[in-house]
Design a protein that fits this description.
Number of strands: 20
Bound molecules: flavin-adenine dinucleotide
Structural class: alpha+beta
Distance between the termini: 22 Å
CATH topology of the largest domain: FAD/NAD(P)-binding domain
Helix content: 25-40%
CATH architecture of the largest domain: 3-Layer(bba) Sandwich
Order of helices and strands: EHEHEHEHEHEEHEEEEEEEHEEHEEEHE
CATH class of the largest domain: Alpha Beta
Strand content: 25-35%
Shape: globular
Length: 362
C-alpha cells in the first residue's frame, strides 16, 4: 500500500509523482511501457508561455516559472534560450504587437525585434522576414531524461491498468495496487480508464540532425503556427525548430488530428522539412539522423483535464495536454498535489475541471 498510485510514467505522471513526493506522500507509478516512452518521447522539449486563452496562459506561465525554479540535473539539458516568434509579414507583425501587449499587461517580459535585429539574432533565417517577438523566459529541455529524474522518488511498477478506484488501481494481470489517492495520467490512453474524457490523438512528425552548434540559438516558431496549430482539423505543418544542448537541431512539426499509426509518412515529413527550409535556407544541408512521430493527447478546447473525477472521493485525472504537456506538467502536478492534500490550488483549477465535460468514472 502506498499513499498514491499514478497510471502513466510520461512527463505528466512523473511530475505528479514528484509533486506528491514533495508533499510527503509515498508514490507508485505504473506504466505498460517504459517510463517516458509514450508521447513524451515523441515530443519536443519547448517550455513556452502560451496565450491562446487566459486559462492556457495561467497554466503555462505558472508551469514555466516552476521549471525555471527547479534544480534540474545536467541530463535534463535545460537550455534557457527563450523563444523567437517569427513574423513573416506585416500581418504577423501585428500579431507580434498583440502578443507583446498581452504578455506585458501580465508582467511577462518580451521584446519586439525588427527585421534587422532578427537577422542578427538568427543569421541562418532567410532575409526579408518582418521581425519577431523574443520571449526570454521560455526554455528547452530534454524531456525523456527529465521524466526519469522526476520519477526518482517513486516506485515503478510495470503493468497495464484496467480500472481506477478510490482505493487503488486494478491491473490486467489480476493484481491490485492499493492507495488512498489514484491519478489517471495515461495521456492518449486516459479515456480507457475514465469514461467521457474527450481526448483524440493528434499526430506529429519530428526530425533531429547531427551536431551543428550555433546553427539556431533560440526556439524558433513561425507565428503562422498559431493559425495552424489549434484551429484547423486539417493536416498542417509549421516551422518550429529548436537548438539542443548537444548542438543538434530539432525540426518540427506536423499535425494530423485522429491519425493513430506511428508510421512515418513521407508526405508529411517532406512537407514539414520544406516548411523549415523556407525559413532556414541552409537546413537541407544538415544531416538528419533520426525521424519519429508522436501522438499529442488533444482535447476539444485545447485545455487539459486536471481534477477530481466526478462521483469519486480521491480519483484524479491529469491528461489531455496536447502540444503543451512538457511545458505544463509542472503546474498540472502542483494542482493535483494541492487537490489531493486538500490545500488551496496555486492557480484557479476550474478551467481544467472534468466537469466542463460529461465524464463518468468506470
Ligand atoms: C511532435 C510533438 C511535439 C511536441 N512538442 C512539445 C513541446 O515542444 N512542448 C510541450 O510542452 N509539449 C510538446 N508536445 C506535447 C507533449 O509531448 C505531450 O503533451 C506530453 O508528452 C504528454 O505527456 P503525458 O505524460 O500526458 O503522456 P505520455 O507521455 O503518453 O504518458 C502516458 C503514459 O501512460 C502509459 N499508459 C497509457 N495507458 C496505460 C494503462 N492503461 N496502463 C498503464 N500505463 C498506461 C503510456 O504507456 C505512457 O507511458 C509535443 C508532442 C508531439 C507529438
Amino acid at each position: 500500500m502506498t499513499d498514491a498510485v499514478i497510471v502513466g510514467a510520461g512527463i505528466v505522471g512523473a511530475a505528479c509523482a514528484d509533486a506528491l513526493a514533495d508533499e510527503g506522500l509515498s508514490v507508485t507509478v505504473v506504466d505498460s511501457g517504459i517510463p517516458g516512452g509514450g508521447t513524451t518521447a515523441g515530443g519536443m522539449g519547448h517550455l513556452t508561455v502560451m496565450d491562446d486563452s487566459e486559462a492556457q496562459f495561467a497554466l503555462t506561465r505558472y508551469s514555466v516559472d516552476l521549471w525555471r525554479s527547479m534544480d534540474l540535473p545536467p541530463r535534463a539539458e535545460f537550455l534557457p534560450c527563450g523563444t523567437l516568434w517569427v513574423a513573416a509579414d506585416d500581418e504577423e507583425m501585428a500579431e507580434v504587437r498583440r502578443k507583446q501587449a498581452f504578455l506585458s499587461s501580465r508582467v511577462v517580459a518580451s521584446e519586439v525585434l525588427d527585421s534587422r535585429a532578427l537577422a542578427e539574432a538568427e543569421p541562418n533565417l532567410r532575409r526579408g522576414l518582418a521581425g519577431a517577438l523574443f520571449v526570454p523566459c521560455d526554455a528547452i529541455l530534454y524531456q525523456p531524461l527529465t521524466t526519469r529524474h522526476l520519477l526518482r522518488r517513486a516506485k515503478f511498477v510495470s503493468g497495464e491498468a484496467i480500472r481506477l478506484r478510490d482505493d487503488g488501481v486494478d491491473l490486467r494481470d489480476g493484481s491490485r495496487l492499493s492507495a488512498a489517492v489514484t491519478v489517471n495520467a495515461a495521456g492518449v490512453g486516459a479515456p480507457k480508464l475514465t469514461a467521457g474524457l474527450d481526448i483524440q490523438p493528434r499526430k506529429g512528425h519530428l526530425l533531429i540532425t547531427d551536431r551543428y552548434p550555433g546553427f539556431v540559438r533560440h526556439a524558433l516558431v513561425e507565428l503562422g503556427y498559431l493559425k495552424n496549430a489549434h484551429a484547423s482539423r486539417a493536416d498542417s505543418v509549421a516551422f518550429n525548430v529548436q537548438p539542443r544542448v548537444t548542438g543538434q537541431v530539432l525540426i518540427g512539426s506536423s499535425r494530423q488530428l485522429g491519425a493513430t499509426s506511428p508510421d512515418i509518412e513521407p508526405r508529411m515529413l517532406g512537407w514539414m522539412l520544406q516548411r523549415a527550409a523556407s525559413y532556414l535556407p541552409d537546413a537541407p544541408r544538415l544531416n538528419g539522423i533520426r525521424t519519429w512521430t508522436g501522438l499529442r493527447p488533444c482535447t476539444p478546447d485545447n485545455l487539459p483535464y486536471i481534477g477530481l473525477v466526478p462521483g469519486t472521493r480521491s480519483t484524479y485525472v491529469a491528461a489531455g495536454h496536447e502540444g503543451l504537456g512538457i511545458t505544463s506538467a509542472t503546474g498540472t502536478a502542483k494542482l493535483i498535489a494541492s487537490l489531493a492534500t486538500g490545500r488551496k490550488p496555486p492557480i484557479p483549477v476550474e478551467p481544467y475541471a472534468l466537469s466542463r465535460e460529461m465524464v463518468e468514472h468506470v
